[in-house]
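Hi support team,

I've been running sequence recovery on a batch of backbones for a student project. Most finish fine, but this one hangs at about 90% for roughly twenty minutes before it completes. I'm not sure whether the input is malformed or the queue is just slow. I've pasted the structure tokens below so you can try to reproduce it. Let me know if you need the job ID as well.

Thanks,
M.K.
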């Protein structure tokens, strides 16, 4: 599969995840805590004991988004967009690994990736401002 096609599939998946993100945030205590810390915490407060790199990386991403926008941006939407992008990247990487080194064949690999991409659990967390999808990708 050509690189351009792979990139387009990844971008399309990120768009789908971002546009279909759950609006129910009743189980998102961590997401709001992460977003607050990214926007307000200083020094050691950014170092979560279970995932040391996530909050500093998201702080850097928010700073880049603010610089591009020319104004401060809220952290929660940036974290959710990062989650959607990582979810899309995970689906594409999964298909490439199955179809390449694991030898499943291109058709089977993309069918399996579609199963992952549209499974209820994966879709429900794909654009959450949580660590789940970035963790899957990396």
């Amino acid at each position: 599969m050509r690189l351009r096609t792979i990139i387009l599939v990844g971008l399309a998946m990120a768009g789908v995840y971002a546009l279909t993100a759950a609006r129910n945030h009743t189980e998102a205590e961590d997401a709001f805590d992460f977003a607050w810390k990214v926007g307000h915490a200083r020094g050691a407060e950014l170092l979560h004991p279970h995932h040391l790199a996530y909050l500093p990386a998201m702080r850097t991403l928010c700073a880049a988004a603010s610089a591009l926008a020319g104004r401060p941006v809220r952290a929660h939407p940036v974290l959710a967009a990062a989650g959607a992008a990582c979810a899309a990247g995970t689906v594409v990487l999964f298909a490439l690994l199955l179809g390449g080194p694991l030898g499943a064949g291109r058709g089977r690999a993309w069918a399996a990736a579609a199963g992952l991409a549209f499974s209820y659990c994966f879709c429900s967390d794909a654009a959450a401002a949580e660590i789940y999808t970035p963790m899957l990708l990396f």
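--
Follow-up from support: It reproduced on our side and the slowdown came from queue contention, not your input. The mean pLDDT is 84. No action needed from you.
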